[in-house]
């Protein structure tokens, strides 16, 4: 079982930009259509792991985004979550 998880173990340490770049390379490889089937399956699975990692990083970033609340006269009076939820 370790052999199947080892190829994707590095993904958790990637920044969003690194993961997105790796995912774009996978998409390019798959779109070219010259990758053998067994390799296509492996890189597709890696692409799924990269996508999940990007989604997780985006969600964490969204959770940090806040909007500034303004008083009726336009002065800042604090912050609140962007979605207000």
What does this structure look like?
This protein has 3 helices and 2 strands; from the N terminus they run αααββ. The chain has 85 residues and is of the alpha+beta class. Strands 1-2 form a two-stranded antiparallel sheet. The longest helix has 28 residues, at 37-64. 7% of the residues are buried.
Count of discrete alpha- or pi-helical segments spanning 4 or more residues: 3
> Radius of gyration, Cα only, in angstroms?
20 Å
- Given helix and strand content, the structural type is alpha+beta
Low-pLDDT stretches: none
**What is the arithmetic mean of pLDDT?**
85
Give the SSE order as H and E letters.
HHHEE
Name the shape in a single word. elongated
Separation, N- and C-terminal Cα atoms: 40 Å
Number of strands: 2
- Level of helix content? 55-70%
* Main sheet strand line-up: 1-2
Largest sheet geometry: 2 strands, antiparallel
Strand content: 5-15%
Please sum up the structure shown:
It is built from three helices and two strands, in the order H-H-H-E-E. The protein has helices at residues 2-5, 16-32, 37-64, and strands spanning 66-70, 76-81.
List descriptors.
two-stranded antiparallel sheet, 85 residues, single chain, alpha+beta
Topology at a glance:
Blueprint lengths: L1 H4 L10 H17 L4 H28 L1 E5 L5 E6 L4
Antiparallel strand pairs: 1-2
């Amino acid at each position: 079982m370790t052999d199947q998880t080892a190829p994707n173990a590095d993904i958790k340490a990637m920044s969003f930009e690194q993961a997105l770049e790796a995912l774009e390379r996978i998409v390019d490889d798959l779109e070219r259509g010259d990758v053998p089937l067994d390799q296509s399956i492996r890189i597709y699975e890696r692409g799924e792991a990269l996508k999940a990692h990007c989604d997780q990083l985006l969600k964490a970033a969204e959770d940090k985004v806040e909007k500034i609340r303004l008083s009726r006269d336009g002065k800042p009076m604090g912050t609140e979550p962007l979605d207000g939820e």
